[in-house]
What does this fold into?
Amino acid sequence: MNQLPFQIRVPGSTSNLGPGFDSIGLAVNRYLYLNVEAADSWHIAFDQNPVNLPEAEENIIYQAAQMVSEKYNKKLLPLSVTMQSDIPLARGLGSSAAAIVAGVEIANIIHELQLSKQEKAHLASCFEGHPDNATASVYGGLTVSLHTEQKTETVALPAPDIDLIAMIPSAELKTKDSRNVLPESLSYSEAIKGSAVGNVLVAAILQNNWELAGKMMDQDVFHQPYRESLVPDLPTIAALARDFGVLGTALSGAGPTINCFIPKGKGEYIASILKTAFPEYHCEILSPVNHGVWRLAEEEKTF
Ligand SMILES: Nc1ncnc2c1ncn2[C@@H]1O[C@H](COP(=O)(O)OP(=O)(O)OP(=O)(O)O)[C@@H](O)[C@H]1O
Ligand SMILES: N[C@@H](CCO)C(=O)O
It folds into this structure.
């Protein structure tokens, strides 16, 4: 326990980018900060703006840290974790993955496990059940992954040179509820189309061809068509946004946030148009970031 106290920072993320369902993640400049100290019993809470989250063993940060501790046969002693965050909860910006990655990192530091990024990403993906947000929060940048219980294969790429306008509704949508509207299976021909659309999306992003990437976002067959019942504004926003220079529009993760991918520096102009057209959404300009989970040096500590 001689590591204590310490602070870590974990980026939030968007995922799927349309057809990259349960595979593609992108870390963004919204962060979960945690201050971790010794304590007599577990206590996990936000520093300001308290929200209704479990304070102890029911909290996913504790559960992820405990999962890693058990895997490495270590005893997890009680800790006090104080958090600050500008990642909205249950809005599709990877709040749960950031919390899970934080739990993995806490165990890594406390037990001096020296886990690699691949190991952290695998542990966090096993906990969350899919790798897209978790890998983005571990590696930073753009991540393309295949997750199985045995291994999480990730190609980690630099953050692309674009910005995003996140259109965030006031109501939460839990990932669990948003996955409940998805079908059990797809036909062979639909699966082939879905895979081709995802392949072209990745190739277009690698060539910085966001026009083409945007077209692929519209052609997802894996999840967006089914989730339109929960997020009916998606096609309307996508159609309007295109007229004002948005390169592509996609559901952020499981929603309900809708992301507009835009040329760097055009955010204020396009956001002002979107805010006028859709006043019920909170519009935030986000930028991709290259750093994943990070232990802060003394001079970097924020609270
Ligand atoms: N900092 C945190 N500490 C503890 N629990 C958290 C924290 N952040 C998120 N959670 C838990 O995760 C839930 C939200 O997870 P959910 O997967 O539904 O949405 P999300 O991760 O924000 O969006 P998405 O997975 O679509 O990107 C919260 O309701 C809360 O239970
Ligand atoms: N790929 C996940 C991301 C949300 O956690 C989904 O769309 O359900």
Summary: The CA atoms of residues 96 and 277 lie 30 Å apart. The pocket of L-homoserine (ligand 2) is lined by residues 15-16, 21-22, 130, 132-133, 175, 178-179, 223, 253-254 (CB under 6 Å). The first strand starts at residue 6 and ends at 15.
